[in-house]
Amino acid sequence: MIAVADTGPLLALAKVNALDLLAHLFQQAVITPAVFTEAITAGLAQNAPDAYILEAAVKNGRLQMRVPKPLALPRPAFIHRGEEESIRLAIELAADCLLVDDLDARRAAIDNFAAAGVSTSVKGTLGVIVTTYQQKYLAREQAVDLVNALKARPDIWISRKLCDQVIRTIQKY
After folding, report:
1. On the CB side of 166, how many CA atoms lie within 13 Å of its CA?
2. Model-level pTM?
3. pLDDT digits (tens, 9 = 90+) for 26-35
4. Cα–Cα distance for residue pair 28/4, rounded to 1 Å
5. CA distances from 164 to 59, 88, 122, 130 (A)
6. I need a surface site. Which of 20, 109, 120, 131 has the fewest CB within 10 A?
7. CA nearest 87: which of 127, 128, 32, 150?
8. What is the pLDDT of residues 125-156, one digit of tens each?
9. DSSP 10-49
10. Are 14 and 53 within 8 A, CB to CB?
């Protein structure tokens, strides 16, 4: 399985030391040059610990960088460059999954995947945690701890209310 990852989920997973979850779910995790610049180059310039984690993942091959073909999206959208490149690459590769947290980008991805006729699913950071829990790569307590860690960080922009809903769902099952 191939996943194309946008900046948000990569940063969030790296910040809570959970980047390795991607290897449990996907044979290949791919990023675009814009995502590399946003997540790694900009982070290294600020000496951000998560950028070093992501840089190491690229160096050891856990994350692979690919340049998408310079084609327009089937349905243009007003989203950031990294999100747009990630959607284009997911279409090009017919990826199994696009990892993106931003709601507008998720909507644009779903719309563009339908227009392109690909069956790529869309999943965010919380979806990665829930799926690894459902597939028994994480124990319930570990999954809840990761969601709480995301919720506690002021530099991760995932709704606390959504985190609480996900925690309740995990605790039910």
Report:
1. 26
2. 0.95
3. 999 999 999 9
4. 8
5. 35, 32, 21, 13
6. 20
7. 32
8. 999 999 999 999 999 999 999 999 999 999 99
9. HHHHHHTT-TTHHHHH-SEEEE-HHHHIIIIIHHHHTT-H
10. yes
